[in-house]
Design brief:
The protein is mainly α. The chain has one domain. It contains 13 helices and four strands. Strands 1-2-4-3 form a four-stranded mixed beta sheet. Strand 3 and strand 4 form a beta hairpin.
């Protein structure tokens, strides 16, 4: 059974990186963002909470094992990682994105969702409210999991691994280029449907590193392939009772194998 899951995940990852016309077809709408808002990227940092952060590091252990990177969900973000995030956002004109570095601020997130004019109220009141409720009741400050919230235009960072965080930031770049960003974001919250978004976001991150330097590209691949594999494995195995953690670990291993196969 595990061998079948392993082969299936490998095929899915390799197929995902081959590209999908549905998710590669950008529909650019310049009316979705205001060029005049460009400025310095704002980073808000959470106050040190030793007990909460130690608990978060313990809860993030399966993710670190799956990705094979001790910096994942370590709740200790360095200035170097924050600088790399800032550099990416500025160069891609995503300055309006607020970076929450290991911060928990549900009330401020509600205000940002209400003031976001780029997504229609129907999507904010439904899927946006769902994401806000999940963020409030299952805070990433404790559970980890770097992610970008398109309804509040906030990038939530809990890992000190730049490649992982950049792969979340690329979702902001992707969703900005959609004619109906609310509907596109809503699809991501559906079971398995969000894997297409994950694949494209990872591809955009790898393109970014490939254009930076060969060294950073090779280093990013060693993290992003198992990270994507863990996403695939976790979602596919989530239909099995208590299978999500095991699925992530298996998927991460498949991702490392896929990286070696693609490199060769």
């Amino acid at each position: 059974m595990h061998g079948l899951i392993f082969r299936l995940l490998l095929c899915l990852i390799l197929f995902g990186f081959a590209g999908c016309s549905t998710f590669n077809a950008y529909e650019r709408s310049d009316a979705q963002f205001d060029q005049s808002t460009f400025g310095a990227v704002e980073i808000q940092r959470g106050k040190p909470r030793p007990i909460v952060d130690v608990s978060g590091r313990l809860l993030g252990l399966p993710n670190r094992i799956a990705v094979g990177d001790a910096r994942v969900d370590n709740h200790d973000i360095s200035s170097a990682t924050e600088m790399e995030i800032t550099n990416y956002l500025e160069q891609n004109q995503l300055n309006y994105v607020l970076v929450r570095s290991n911060q928990y601020a549900p009330l401020n997130e509600l205000k940002r969702m209400i003031s976001n004019k780029k997504i229609r109220p129907i999507w904010k009141s439904t899927f946006g409210s769902y994401n806000l409720l999940k963020y409030t009741l299952l805070p990433g400050r404790l559970t980890g999991g770097d992610w970008y919230n398109p309804y509040t235009e906030s990038l939530h960072v809990y890992s000190d691994s730049p490649a992982v965080v950049i792969s979340r930031a690329t979702y902001a770049q992707d969703i900005r280029n959609r004619l109906n960003p609310g509907a596109y974001a809503a699809i991501k919250d559906l079971p398995l449907a969000g894997l297409g978004h994950e694949t494209l976001a990872t591809k955009l991150a790898l393109d970014w590193y490939e254009n930076s330097s060969p060294e950073s590209y090779e280093s990013a691949k060693e993290v992003l392939y198992p990270n994507l594999g863990a996403s695939y494995g976790g979602q596919l195995a989530s239909f099995i009772p208590y299978g999500e953690v095991l699925g992530k670990i298996i998927g991460g291993g498949v991702g490392r194998l896929a990286n070696k196969v693609k490199t060769r």
